[in-house]
C-alpha cells in the first residue's frame, strides 16, 4: 500500500511537530504518573482511575503514531508559485458574482483547514475549483446550496 501524501505549509509542519514533541515529552510523563498513582488505589480490576489513565495512554500513543505517520508522508509547500496562479499557500480575494460579497481565504492542506480562520483546504470544493486559476478569472463551484460563481480579485502570499 502506497503512502498517501499530506500537504502542509511550513506553519502546519511547525504546529504538528510541536504537538508531537509535547505529547512525547509531557503527555507520556503525565499519563505514566497517573497510572502509577492509580495503582496505589488497590485492586486494578475495579479501579476506574487506572482504567481512565490507561485509556488516556492509549489515546496519546495513538495520536503520536498518527502524527509520526503524517510527518513522514508530509509534502511541505513553501510558497505558492510566483506565476500568479492559485496554489497551496496562496491568499485569495474573491467576490461572489450573485451577492457581490467579498471573501478572503488562504488555501492550505486538508489538515490545516479552519474555515473560522479563513483557511480552506485545497481539497474542498472551493479550494479545488480555485487551484490553478489567476486574478480576473471566474470559477464556478458546486456547493450544497447550488452552483456559485466567484471572480478572483487578487492572488497573493
Topology (SSEs and partners):
Blueprint: E1 6-8, H1 10-39, H2 48-72, E2 74-76, E3 91-96, E4 102-108, E5 119-121, H3 125-130, E6 138-143, E7 146-156
Describe this structure in words.
There is one protein chain. With 157 residues, the chain is α/β, with parallel strands linked by helices. It folds into 2 domains: 71 residues, Helix Hairpins (Orthogonal Bundle); 66 residues, Transcription elongation factor, GreA/GreB, C-terminal domain (Chitinase A, domain 3), CATH 3.10.50. It has 3 helices and 7 strands; from the N terminus they run βααββββαββ. The strands form 2 sheets. Strands 5-4-3-7-6 form a 5-stranded mixed β-sheet. The chain has a two-stranded parallel sheet with strand order 1-2. Strand 6 and strand 7 form a beta hairpin. Helix 1 packs antiparallel against helix 2. The radius of gyration is 22 Å and the shape is elongated. The relative contact order is 0.16. The model has no long low-confidence stretch (mean pLDDT 89).
